[in-house]
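Follow-up to my post from last week.
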Amino acid sequence: AQRVTQPEKLLSVFKGAPVELKCNYSYSGSPELFWYVQYSRQRLQLLLRHISRESIKGFTADLNKGETSFHLKKPFAQEEDSAMYYCALTGLGGSARQLTFGSGTQLTVLP
Amino acid sequence: ETGVTQSPTHLIKTRGQQVTLRCSSQSGHNTVSWYQQALGQGPQFIFQYYREEENGRGNFPPRFSGLQFPNYSSELNVNALELDDSALYLCASSLTGALETQYFGPGTRLLVL
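User reply:
Got it. Predicted complex:
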C-alpha cells in the first residue's frame, strides 16, 4: 500500500530563516512525488513535482529514494509562504493518476 | 482563478439520506477526479472519470458513485449517508489525467447529522 507521512502538523519559523517541511513515503514501485500548497481562502494548487526538478517560489525538493523522503526546503522563508502544505505521490505510468496525500503541515512564518 | 466550479458550497444532510454534488470542469479538460478531505486530513482519492467512464477508484464503498457528462462536468453521489461522510469534497479537472494540468475546485462541505 502506498502511504505519505508528514510528521509535523504545525511548523513555525521566523521570516528569513530556513524552512524544511518533511515528507516520507512508502511505495512499492517507482513513485512520482509532488508538493501541493493551499493558501488561506484559496484552492489547493500544485507547487512542484520531483520530475521537473524545478524551483518554485524559492522552494525545492529532492527525492531521496534511499531514505524514501521528499522534503520541501526554502533557504529564506517569507511571510507569504504561510500556508498548508501537502506532500503527495502517485505511481509512474498508472492508468488513473490517483494521488495519495499526506495529512499536511501548516507552516506559519512569523515576522 | 481557475475555471473549476463546485456546487453547492455547503449542505447539511441527515444519516441515511442521499446527496449529489456537482463539478464543472475547466474548459478543455476531459478528466475529473473526486477527493474526500476529512477535517485535519489530506484529500483521499475517491475515483476518476475520463470521457464519461470511471477510470480508477480508491478505497471507497459502492455507495459512492459518480457520473461524467458529455460536457465533462461530473456528479458525485453518496447513498445511505453516514456520520463519517462529513467532509470537504474536492473535485479536480485535468487534461487526460495529467497531474501537471490538474486544477482543484473550491470544494463542497458536507455535514451529516
